[in-house]
Design a protein that fits this description.
The chain contains 8 helices and 11 strands. By secondary structure, it is α/β, with parallel strands linked by helices.
């Protein structure tokens, strides 16, 4: 983010778009996707497919973007399987296939039979395939790396936004925006389901996705309690974007303590 802003000042006649940032300038816009919406849906799949009632999550850094994904996944999982729990292993890296593989192995050894990740390689899906357990991909459809393991994936669809940004620049309409789009805007979609996922589960996930897109349901609708029992959001309330963007706690169902972000 900060290097983008620095370079943008050196090239004032060029437009810049930065993913997941929070600072803008006269020629710098920011955009992001509501990953947590897809995470909730992925959690529903995990909750129905786990036999051990333990899922595993390989995570990069304990920042709000990642934490809200962990929490949304857990809430989705427990909405269909109240006995299920989530274990998290942190890699302190966005992309390190070796570390991601080791983290996946650790989670499997702790009883997880469904894995997912907020890291950038395919290592978690590949490890699940090798160990004959399930996995849910992230960023893109990773089924070719784990044809048996891969249940679905939370995919990020940037194409339409990029096309609009370029068209706006070409027509002189570009302005520095702050975009946070989700299922409604088509920026978050679930990949195709593995045939092992029962049809009733697929139907339930698709219905919830439609409800999220229509604004009828939010993955963080109260009551929300953290994993120490403290109420973070009252019953019937819906979390605001401002509070969501500062999320610094685990919800009920996540094991362990959240590391301090450095």
């Amino acid at each position: 983010m900060n290097p983008t802003l620095k370079v943008a000042k050196q090239f004032p006649n060029t437009y810049f778009e930065h993913a997941t940032g929070y600072k803008t300038d006269k020629n710098v816009g920011i955009y992001n996707a509501r990953f947590y919406e897809g995470r909730y849906l992925a959690g529903m799949v995990a909750g129905k497919m786990t036999k051990s009632n333990v899922a595993g999550y390989v995570a990069a850094f304990p920042i709000p973007e990642v934490v809200m994904g962990i929490n949304a996944f857990t809430r989705g999982m427990r909405s269909v399987n109240p006995k299920s729990e989530l274990k998290v292993v942190w890699t302190s890296s966005w992309y390190d296939p070796g570390k991601e593989h080791e983290a996946a192995e650790t989670l499997i050894s702790q009883g997880a039979d469904v894995l997912t990740h907020h890291t950038d390689s395919t290592a978690v899906v590949q490890t699940a395939e090798a160990k004959k357990i399930y996995a849910i991909g992230y960023h893109s459809d990773m089924s070719k790396y784990g044809p048996n393991a891969h249940l679905t994936a939370v995919t990020h669809q940037w194409g339409a936004y990029y096309t609009k940004a370029v068209q706006d620049a070409m027509s002189g309409k570009w302005k520095p925006g702050n975009v946070w789009g989700g299922i409604k805007e088509g920026m978050i979609k679930m990949a195709a389901f593995n045939q092992v996922v029962p049809k009733d589960v697929q139907d339930s996930v698709n219905k919830t996705a439609a409800d999220i897109g229509a604004g009828k349901f939010h993955p963080f609708t109260g009551p929300v309690k953290d994993n120490e029992g403290k109420e973070r959001l009252a019953a019937g309330k819906v979390i605001t974007d401002d509070v969501l963007s500062k999320m610094d706690y685990y919800v009920e169902g996540v094991q362990g303590k959240l590391p301090v972000s450095k």
